[in-house]
Specification:
Elements: E1 2-3, E2 10-11, E3 27-31, E4 40-45, E5 48-54, E6 60-64, E7 78-80, E8 83-85, E9 92-93, E10 99-101, E11 118-119, E12 121-124, E13 127-130, E14 155-163, H1 167-175, E15 190-199, E16 203-212, H2 215-219, E17 230-239, E18 242-247, E19 251-261, E20 264-273, H3 279-318, E21 325-326, H4 329-348, H5 350-362, H6 366-379
Helix pairs in contact: 1-4, 4-5, 4-6
Bound molecules: FE2/S2 (inorganic) cluster (FES) and fe (ii) ion.
FE2/S2 (inorganic) cluster binds next to loops.
Length: about 375
């Protein structure tokens, strides 16, 4: 549904800073190359500790990072065939989490029922993905489409982001093109305007007009011969829980989000650029160019953003009751989506809901968050679509 693009003041409901994730989506946990054959990596998806491991044959699997015997972290163990062997007593757990061997048990004796939770896992776009929700739903959900990944015209710059902030703060940062002001010394974009805004049950899409001039504009091939000012459209598609933006065929940025916990978020970003070099020259220079682009083009922007996001999180924590004011309807729509996804899955999965309820009530906010979340969902224009 189309939403109004008019900028006007609205009070932010801070409960969006407390909600958990909808676990019934695929989340990135590591770059595929970080996990070599025979290795185990500890990762966390919204407070769930997971051990991701790769067999000698190259397959990746994920088990909860706690041995069913005594709770030892399984990532401290070793990969044996398709199993992880726990370092303490050597119990072995296969890719489904079933205990298949206890080294000091008589061979004829039945093994006790002991299983670690296993998670659906896949590898795509150079990223390892885990489905932390109801495993039966994993096949119904697909990964984001990244058509640029296999296209030779695009140069891929992978970037890892780590933010000490709730995932709502991180997503608002990237949805909010009005913060070009922050990047003025980097000659980022200026004179932004929100042109269109759409909301569906699982996404918020916004088109912004932006203007460029200066060094960055030249590098991206945007400069015009007259006053050097180029006007372009940035199209943003936040499809829960991941983000994609394009600058009219010049660049394409995917932020695959990993909410680690209420105060920590990571992202595995795929930045695609069209570099104006002949293909024969681009090929040998690609490995040389990519770290340079990351360091000198992208990181200065990211570092400025990180400082803002972490400052926002810190002040939120100092006084969670304080109300802030927003004027961008795209941010309000994004917040509605984040809250709605959390509330929907809570009602779908009772057991998960209970665990989240427990987590949040420990923070003293679940009841209030749910009430406000439900109230916000009632006001949502596309309620009828659900
Ligand atoms: S704690 Fe893992 S085998 Fe004993
Ligand atoms: Fe930024």
């Amino acid at each position: 549904m189309e939403l109004a693009t008019e900028l006007k003041g609205q009070t932010i409901q801070n409960q969006v800073r407390e909600v958990g994730i909808n676990p019934n989506h695929w989340y990135p946990v590591a770059w595929a190359e970080q996990l070599k054959a025979g290795q185990i990596l500890p990762v966390t998806v919204w407070q769930q500790a997971i051990a991701v491991y790769r067999t000698a044959a190259g397959q990746a699997f994920a088990l909860e990072n706690a041995c069913p015997h005594k709770g030892i972290e399984l990532h401290k163990g070793e990969v044996m065939g398709n199993c992880i062997a726990c370092p303490y007593h050597g119990w072995e757990f296969d890719q489904d989490g079933q205990c298949v061997n206890i080294p000091y048990f008589p061979k004829t004796q039945m093994l006790p029922r002991a299983a670690a939770r296993s998670y659906p896992t896949q590898e795509k776009y150079g990223i390892l993905w885990v489905f932390p929700g109801d495993a039966a739903l994993a096949s119904q959900h697909s990964l984001p489409q990244v058509p640029e990944f296999d296209h030779p015209d695009w140069v891929l710059v992978p970037i890892t982001g780590k933010f000490n902030a709730h995932f709502s703060i991180c997503n608002e940062n990237t949805m909010d093109v009005f913060h070009g002001y922050l990047h003025k010394n980097l000659q980022g974009w200026f004179d932004p305007a929100l042109l269109s805004l759409k909301e569906t049950a699982a996404s918020v899409q916004a088109d912004y007009r932006v203007r460029y001039k200066g060094k960055l504009s030249k590098f991206l091939g945007l400069a015009t011969p007259n006053d050097g000012v180029t006007t372009r459209i940035v199209s943003i598609d936040y499809h829960y829980p991941h983000y994609h933006s394009t600058l009219e065929g010049v660049s394409s940025l995917y932020l695959m989000r990993l909410p680690v916990g209420p105060k920590e978020t990571r992202s595995f970003s795929l930045l695609f650029l069209q570099i104006r070099l002949p293909k024969w020259l681009l090929k040998p220079f690609r490995s040389f160019l990519v770290p340079l682009i990351r360091r000198f083009l992208f990181m200065p922007f990211l570092e400025q953003d990180v400082e803002m996001m972490e400052s926002e999180q810190q002040n939120y924590q100092v006084n969670p009751q304080r109300r802030y004011v927003e004027v961008n309807p795209a941010i309000i729509a994004l917040q509605r989506l984040i809250v709605r996804q959390f509330v929907q899955q809570s009602s779908l999965s009772e057991s998960f809901s209970e665990s989240v309820s427990q987590n949040l009530s420990e923070q003293g906010s679940y009841k209030e968050a749910t009430t406000v979340a439900e109230a916000k969902v009632e006001q949502t224009p596309e309620n009828s679509m659900r």
